[in-house]
């Protein structure tokens, strides 16, 4: 499967629990602030484990305003926080609501 290098790196980081939030970067003194660089709000989102025996699916989509191209992706984790599977998909041109 042909995948862009930055997606491979992102998936490797997600698989190995190495993605850092702004809050985590701030605690490690890698950033001066835990504020989001896009919306200037504090990064306070924390992933919580689902109940025992359950899995949690997190997904999101994005659309580029310049040409309308959109993509979506997601991740499934078990009740221990272990990465089970992830996905990415190019949706093509669509509206913001579709992405």
Automatic annotation (TrEMBL):
<dbReference type="InterPro" id="IPR053151">
    <property type="entry name" value="RNase_H-like"/>
</dbReference>
<feature type="domain" description="Reverse transcriptase zinc-binding">
    <location>
        <begin position="2"/>
        <end position="41"/>
    </location>
</feature>
<dbReference type="InterPro" id="IPR026960">
    <property type="entry name" value="RVT-Znf"/>
</dbReference>
<dbReference type="Pfam" id="PF13966">
    <property type="entry name" value="zf-RVT"/>
</dbReference>
<protein>
    <recommendedName>
        <fullName>Reverse transcriptase zinc-binding domain-containing protein</fullName>
    </recommendedName>
</protein>
């Amino acid at each position: 499967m042909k995948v862009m290098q930055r997606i491979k790196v992102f998936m490797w980081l997600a698989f190995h629990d190495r993605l850092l939030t702004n809050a985590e970067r701030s605690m490690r003194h890698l950033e001066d602030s835990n504020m989001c660089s896009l919306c200037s709000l504090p990064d306070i989102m924390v992933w919580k484990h689902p109940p025992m025996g359950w899995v949690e699916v997190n997904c999101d989509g994005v659309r580029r305003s310049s040409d309308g191209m959109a993509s979506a992706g997601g991740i499934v984790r078990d009740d221990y926080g272990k990465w089970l599977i992830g996905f990415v998909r190019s949706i093509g041109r669509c509206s913001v609501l579709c992405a």
